[in-house]
Design the sequence.
């Protein structure tokens, strides 16, 4: 492949000094999904070797769907010690698990029923409950039973998978919404007015406490948001821009279409490494 990944030097940002993420560009969404599956496998092995367990928060959306399908294939599923994987979610819609819009339901159909992960290792967000606030507290209590904490008292996932919306939202943290201001809770239930619905989501401090945050971003409709997030000059910052993982690593896997507005940035200073794809 002739595409390259690059780590750039951050420009002046309203977030202050942040470590720039690594960015790898691939020709197509299928290549992005393949790279994400490979990264999942590598991080799973590292976490199990380090602590005997791999704590991961899954994402919803079309790009993760393709990645989950790949993880369920013989090539990838045989490389993961699934009984040592604890699976959580980054966010969930307020729908039953069998609803087509359910992030849990999608992951179950595409991945979980096809691999040997024990049912007791799968921890879904019960966002369909009428007592949504209590459900969020229950999910926080569940995470407390399984996850180690950082020095600030927030849970440290080995991997959090994230996507990004065309307006720069990630998980269920939307620009200008209440959940963006959360500084103490682990799980919030913000209302998204334009969707006329509530969501359940991990909060920004939890996302930022992760060992590794993996963004998958595909499509020309994401190009403006990707530019703004990587340039880091929006004030107030976009939600995806605020996920800086100061205690860990950030990696953006993006397809060529999503880089449509990055020409000037692409020629800027930074270290370059070849992106890898299916052979």
Sequence:
């Amino acid at each position: 492949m002739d595409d390259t990944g690059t780590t750039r030097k951050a420009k002046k940002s309203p977030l202050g000094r942040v470590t720039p993420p690594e960015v790898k560009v691939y020709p197509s969404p299928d290549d992005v999904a393949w790279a994400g599956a490979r990264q999942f496998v590598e991080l799973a092995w590292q976490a199990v070797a380090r602590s005997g367990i791999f704590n991961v928060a899954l994402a919803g959306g079309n790009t993760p769907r393709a990645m989950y399908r790949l993880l369920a294939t013989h090539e990838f599923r045989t490389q993961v010690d699934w009984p040592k994987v604890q699976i959580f979610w980054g966010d969930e819609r307020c729908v039953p698990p069998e609803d087509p819009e359910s992030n849990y339901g999608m992951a179950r159909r595409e991945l979980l029923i096809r691999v040997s992960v024990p049912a007791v290792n799968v921890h879904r967000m019960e966002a369909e409950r009428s007592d949504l606030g209590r459900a969020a507290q229950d999910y926080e209590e569940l995470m407390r039973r399984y996850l180690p904490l950082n020095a600030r008292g927030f849970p440290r996932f080995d991997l959090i998978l994230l996507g990004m919306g065309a307006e720069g939202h990630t998980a269920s943290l939307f620009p200008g919404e209440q959940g963006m201001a959360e500084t103490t809770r682990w799980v919030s239930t913000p209302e998204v007015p334009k969707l006329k619905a509530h969501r359940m989501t991990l909060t920004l401090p939890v996302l930022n406490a992760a060992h590794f945050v993996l963004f998958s971003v595909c499509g020309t409709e994401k190009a403006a948001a990707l530019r703004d997030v990587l340039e880091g000059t929006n004030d107030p910052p976009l939600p995806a821009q605020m996920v800086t993982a100061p205690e860990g690593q950030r990696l953006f896997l993006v397809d060529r279409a999503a880089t449509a507005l990055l020409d000037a940035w692409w020629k800027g200073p930074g270290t370059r490494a070849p992106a890898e794809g299916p052979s």
Notes: The radius of gyration is 18 Å. The longest helix spans residues 29-51.
